[in-house]
Design a protein that fits this description.
The protein has 280 residues and is α/β, with parallel strands linked by helices. The chain contains eleven helices and seven strands. Helices cover 45% and strands 15% of the residues. The two termini are 36 Å apart. The relative contact order is 0.16. Bound molecules: zinc ion (ZN) (2 copies).
C-alpha cells in the first residue's frame, strides 16, 4: 500500500491527462493517488473514473496558489466536495483575475513597442491556465527575446517594465474555502516555500495538515515538519508533485509516498470536517 498525494494533470500544467496519470500510477504500483491540479478541479471527474477502471484509489484534491510576504504559498485541499458552489466561485474569481493580469501585461508590452497580441499569448497555452510563461513564449516566437528566461529577466519578472503583480489571495482564505467545501487543507512543500513562520497562524485559521514528504525536503526538513505536525496535531502527507516531466525541478511519480496510516488519518480528518460542516 503506497500513495503519492501530490500530482498534476493536463487540467493544469501537467503533461499527462488524468486517465494517463492514473494508468501510470497503477504501473508504478501505487494503490492511491492524490490529484491536485493548480487552482482547478477540472481533471477530477476523469481521474476518479480512471481510478475505478484501473483499481487505483483517487483522492480528489486541488492546489491553491496564495501569497504571503512576497512568497508563493500553496495550499492543498483533499477529499473536498469539488462541485461545491463556494469553491467553484472562488476558482472562477481566481481564473478571471489571472486573465486580467495577463491582459494588462500584454497591453503594457504593446505600449513599450512589442507587437504581440493576447491571441498569440493564448496560442501558447497547452491546457494549463494562461500565465507569464505563455507571454514569454509569444515574445520568443516573435523574435523579441532569444529564450523564455531572457524574456522573464528583461521584461516579465518582478520589477521589470511589463510586470503586473498577481491578485493577492491570503493563505488563510484558501484554508477557509477548502474547509467550507468539506476538504482537508494541507500546507504544501513548506520547505520549498520557506513558510515555517506561517504555520502557527495557519493552524489558527484551521490548517489540518502539512506536506512532510516532498522531493526537495532533506532529512532535516522532513524531521522538522514531522515534529511540527505532531506539535500542532496536523495530518502528515507527502507526494512527488509529479508534472509528467522528469528533470532538475520535477520528480518522478511515486518519489515521495505515504502509507496506509497517513492515508487513513487524512480520510478520518476529512470525515470529521464534513461532520462538523453539516452540524452548523
Ligand atoms: Zn506547489
Ligand atoms: Zn504541485
Amino acid at each position: 500500500m503506497a500513495a503519492d498525494l501530490h500530482t498534476h494533470t493536463t487540467a493544469s500544467d501537467g503533461r499527462l491527462s488524468p486517465d494517463e496519470l492514473i494508468r501510470l500510477a497503477r504501473a508504478r504500483g501505487l494503490t492511491a493517488i492524490g490529484v491536485t491540479d493548480h487552482d482547478t478541479v477540472a481533471g477530477l471527474d476523469e481521474a476518479l473514473a480512471a481510478g475505478k477502471c484501473y483499481g487505483v484509489t483517487v483522492v480528489p484534491g486541488v492546489e491553491l496558489s496564495t501569497e504571503w510576504e512576497d512568497r508563493e504559498i500553496h495550499i492543498l485541499g483533499y477529499y473536498l466536495e469539488w462541485q461545491e458552489e463556494n469553491l467553484l466561485a472562488f476558482l472562477e474569481t481566481m481564473r478571471r483575475a489571472r486573465y486580467r493580469r495577463i491582459t494588462r501585461m500584454v497591453s503594457r508590452l504593446r505600449e513599450l513597442g512589442y507587437d504581440i497580441t493576447l491571441g498569440e499569448v493564448e496560442g501558447e497555452v497547452r491546457g494549463e491556465a494562461v500565465g507569464r510563461p505563455h507571454i514569454a513564449a509569444a515574445l520568443v516566437r516573435r523574435g523579441y527575446a532569444p529564450s523564455v528566461e531572457v524574456a522573464f529577466k528583461s521584461l516579465l519578472a518582478r520589477g521589470r517594465p511589463a510586470y503586473v503583480p498577481r491578485a493577492k489571495v491570503e493563505p488563510a482564505r484558501a484554508v477557509e474555502v477548502i474547509l467550507k467545501a468539506g476538504g482537508v487543507p494541507v500546507l504544501a512543500h513548506p520547505g520549498l516555500s520557506r513558510a515555517d513562520a506561517l504555520i502557527p497562524a495557519l493552524v489558527e485559521s484551521g490548517l489540518q495538515g502539512v506536506e512532510v514528504y516532498y522531493p526537495v525536503h532533506d532529512a532535516a526538513a522532513t524531521g522538522r515538519y514531522l515534529e511540527l505536525a505532531s506539535r500542532y496535531e496536523l495530518v502528515v502527507t507527502g507526494g512527488s508533485d509529479f508534472h509528467g516531466i522528469i528533470d532538475a525541478g520535477h520528480a518522478d511519480l511515486g518519489t515521495c509516498r505515504v502509507g496506509p496510516v497517513e492515508l487513513e488519518y487524512l480520510l478520518r480528518r476529512a470525515e470529521k470536517i464534513k461532520a462538523q460542516a453539516t452540524k452548523v
